[in-house]
Amino acid sequence: MAKNILIKNGFVIDPANKINQKANVYVVDGKIAEVSKFEPKADLIIDAAGKYVLPGLIDIHVHFREPGDEEEETIASGSAAAVAGGFTSVVCMPNTDPAIDDATSVEYIHRMGRQARRTHVYVMGAITKGRAGEQLSEMGFMTQAGAVGFTDDGSGVQNAAVMLRALKYSSMFKNIVISQHCQDNLLAGAGAMNAGFNSTVLGLPGIDPLAEEMMLWRDIQLVRKTNMRYHVQHVSTAKSAELIRQAKNDCLPITCEVAPHHLLLTDDACCDYDTNYKVNPPLRTAKDIEAIKQAIKDGVIDALASDHAPHLKSEKELEFLAAPFGIASLECALGLYIKALIEPKIIDWPQLVSIMAVNPAKIISVDKGTLGKGKQADITIIDPDFEYTVDVNKFRSKSKNCPYDGWKLKGKVEYTIVGGEIRYSTFATV
Amino acid sequence: MSKKEFIWNRKHLIGLRELSREEIEYILDTAQGFEQVSTRSIKKAPTLRGKVVVNLFFEDSTRTRNSFTLAANRLSADVIEFTQKSSSVSKGETLLDTARNLEAMGIDIVVIRHSAGGAPKFLSRNINACVVNAGDGYCEHPTQGLLDTFTIRKIKGSLEGLKIAIVGDIAHSRVARSDIYAMTKLGAEVTLVGPPTLMPAKVSQLPVQVSYSLDAVIGQVDVINMLRIQFERMGTNPFPSIKEYSHYFGLTVERMKKAKKDILVMHPGPINRGVEIESEVADGTNSVILQQVTNGLAVRMAVLFLVNQAAMAKE
Ligand SMILES: [Zn+2]
């Protein structure tokens, strides 16, 4: 490992420190020593001329399938995919088999993450034991073990009393966020896609947008009562974005994220019964996309996550109704966000870095997301104009269930530096 | 384009939504040609001799299955019956496994009935044999749509300008969807009738009218198609009781008094007598329910014939 790294002549975008200019980034002993015109001697020099140098990107919503479904993804394979996608930190969801619902499981994820030596691996614990939605899991012990938040992701906590209890109880721990996959199971039913004209002609049971909005509305009332930090996962409808906007206007401590497919794909994509487009929450309509993009522009959406959900080909090679939900997208998420938000000029680069690094770090309360002096050197270097074609066969992820195969995207990750170590580079096998 | 120049080139029949008016008319015309086979003393044509047809039924449907079997037999095909009540996935073997196994046996046409919308399309993408949809989830039931249309055309001469009501559980009805596509493409005006809880999402985007009152519609229409109430779906409770449903949407003798004298009463069967339709009406002079069954045979023969022809042309 190089003791000192000098990243020369790159364009540094560090919104937390209001830096948006050409500068050199000097890394010493795994920490940021300086960001300036200063050009010290270094063991390793990276010429970043024409490249963007960003604080390491943070993805707060990934599924690494370990323990339980290691043939779909492991923490090692998922971590390798993460750094290839420019992410220096990820947050694993607890809907594994068994669920991450105790301190031992949290420690296990951390250990496997360290062993993988790629990205930082964080984890959210389950809100309820076994994600059954009934009894609170040991949030205290899991917090002590380093869990950064809690969620029953994969499903929402159906019982309002349990959710209220979770919000109240977690308030005695610092830096904990309760996250929710907002979906009322009874309203969602056995739905396989968005309820709308397409589900009608495809003859597939639909998931009404209300299933998401009702639970979100309910939770907002619970947050109003508890004033506890609450995070909405993968917002998918226009009305949800509107509810969050209002809640924020009321100064409630609510944050939220969106996933790339809810910005780029509509339920029209399901018309050929291609199960690569089966996600939960489902792909919605162009109107929803427009509203969510507007919410991003207005700062209502705090974070961009991938909701990386790998599944085996054999699992997706089923009738649409029978196939599992999810898209594997870690390795192309950045390019997808550039396509959805930068290219149509909805936001600029500093805003993109804010919602892909600065805010995600705040949501999970980690001291990251900036290139501030003395911070751990998590850095992503990208070539913003480099166009590439998504090729699922080159994915490090074990699963290739990705509808973007063959898409042309801009913004190639060239280096991913984690804690001062180059953990990914397009120029060499690291 | 004259009918003679028309070339049928689909080796699968997945649904009527994707068919043009010409294609639908071509199937109906072909079916007309097959009608007389059933009236001959030797009820067989050699059309599919040496071909293997598989009836791949993942859902119960004696009527449709028998009709397809008989249609294939009349065309001299060998028929394999494959019935598996549970959905393929719960048995561990996937639909794809099943299909690949069948294909290894050298089959030519798969007639599939499945509880999942899109299963026939999925199958058609993954095997070389012809795929004929015998009903998928609540997506389509194309041969039913065709036989309904055939029946109306045969009696009324044409569907152009006809007013047709489809009554009942539209949301879960593959028959309704196939009927809508076929009938509107042939120029009929379709009104869907049923409680709002049985109307699918954004139904108004289909080329149809929607009404919640059978009484308001009954006097206007030339054809009324009464869908079967699916008791197995009553668990979700889309209406309070059968009694109340029958009161508002049942085709009773009383209600028939408001109907046009020459109204055609249809039903895809099997009938719940006294629920969606009173026995007297089902067996009455306006009823064409049994003719539908007869016509189903001709239509299915036509479909098997056409997809096989298209497959051979592609080889
Ligand atoms: Zn989720």
Question: Secondary-structure map with pairings?
Answer:
The complex is a heterodimer of chains A (430) and B (315).
Chain A: E1 4-14, E2 19-28, E3 31-36, E4 44-47, E5 52-55, E6 57-62, H1 75-84, E7 87-92, H2 103-116, E8 120-125, H3 139-144, E9 149-150, H4 160-170, E10 177-180, H5 185-188, E11 193-194, H6 197-202, E12 206-207, H7 209-226, E13 230-232, H8 238-249, E14 254-258, H9 261-264, H10 286-297, E15 303-304, H11 313-316, H12 333-342, H13 349-363, E16 379-389, E17 408-418, E18 421-425
Parallel strand pairs in A: 1-4, 1-5, 6-7, 7-8, 8-9, 9-10, 10-13, 11-12, 13-14, 14-15
Antiparallel strand pairs in A: 1-2, 2-3, 5-16, 16-17, 17-18
Helix pairs in contact in A: 1-2, 4-7, 7-8, 8-10
Chain B: H1 21-35, E1 52-57, H2 62-74, E2 78-83, H3 95-104, E3 109-114, H4 119-126, E4 130-136, H5 142-156, E5 163-167, H6 174-185, E6 189-193, E7 209-211, H7 214-218, E8 223-226, H8 242-249, H9 253-256, E9 264-266, H10 279-282, H11 289-314
Parallel strand pairs in B: 1-2, 1-3, 3-4, 5-6, 5-8, 6-7, 8-9
Helix pairs in contact in B: 1-5, 1-11, 2-11, 5-6, 5-11
